[in-house]
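Morning run. Coffee first, then this:
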Amino acid sequence: MPKLSSFEATLWYATAAPAPETAHLTGTIRADVCIVGGGYTGLTTALQLARSGVKVVLLEAKEIGFGGSGRNAGHCTPTFTHYSLPELRKMLGEPWAERLIQRQTRANDRVSEMISQYKIECEWQQNGYVMGAHSPSAMKGIEEKTRDYNAVGARTRVLDKRGVEAITGSPRFHGGWFHAEAGHLNALGYARGLARAVISEGGAIHTQSPVTKVEREGQGWSVNTPQGSVIADKVIFGTGAYTVGGWPRLDTTFKIQRVFVAATEPLPKDLRSSVLPQNTTIHDGRGDIFVYKYNAEGRVVASMFPMGRRGKDIAYTKQVMTDRLRWLHPQIRQEIHWDFFWFGDLDMQYRTIPRLYDLAPGVVALTGLSGRGVPTGSMLGGILSEWALGVPGRDLAIKLEPLTAAPFYMSFGPQLTLRYYRVRDWLTAKRDRAALPPHA
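And here it is:
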């Protein structure tokens, strides 16, 4: 039997609703806008434009959701990864920070609306998200996060130890942060559903159509594939971490950070009544993260970053995940079998927010989602469609900038940061006399 690719090895590939029928591009066709990349960013942009009456063609090198949109863990939490909201305001300045904060923190409104309107089969559950406090001193940061996010309209609250345990079933947290608007879904099912929605609105999608070159064609652009081309007034690249060719140096704008995701066998119903009893997404609050939730079958879907032996030795990696899960939930006494295990790539930026590049008149690219794929990719379609519809750059929610290569230190910076977080969490636990998980 041939070895499955990482994409075909995912839980989502095994369980997602079928993709709409598509074919590779042949011959020359015309469009108002050509979008490159069949992930969340490209698909939501295409959907918004098609709904606005724009003739749009989307080209995907492989198949819908082949990149990060089909490999992520399925968490949908409308927050920012690394920076607090005050830090974002200081870093981006106004009006850019406030515009982006508003889009990101309301991203799940857009996700929920599209799933409902187009009846997308993707296991969507909007039961909230918990970030646990792994030590008493972590509660100060949680209180600040609650204040900052609630000030911009999010529905979040501080949980005490008893409140966290009631929602998560874990006795290990000293408190936590609850975001009521967060959700989770079948990542590939969502991408495929978006593709079906694009087609229903009159947009065209061609898979197995890698873009080899983009060149001037009169007042517009010719987007070339091995067997065809699209003549378009405007071109949008939304290929993210899976950028291969298409535009010179676009793949230098980010550095790759790998992540792995695993899914257990379905847990017994009686165990699920005490482990994640409210079907939320859980972040264990550590810098060296462990994030997990259920899929529709009752499988625990968990993700971590590779570090040292973890991620290289798969048997050892599964044991690390087993030990962490059972430590968080001592009620799990049975042996845990991880039926699915796969890797994905993140297009990392040092600011961990997307960057919008002005490549040429009528051509833009967006990279650097930095691991916030589901909500971020979903809200970016609104911004990119506004650009395509003629909204001036000064009025967009992300600032247009010249193409810039990611700094060299991003090749090793994320790994060093993870190691720093691991040491910091260890020292904090020792100082606070808090329990440490296995392999911490």
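The domain at 1-124+185-254+347-406 is CATH 3.50.50.60 (FAD/NAD(P)-binding domain). Good start to the day.
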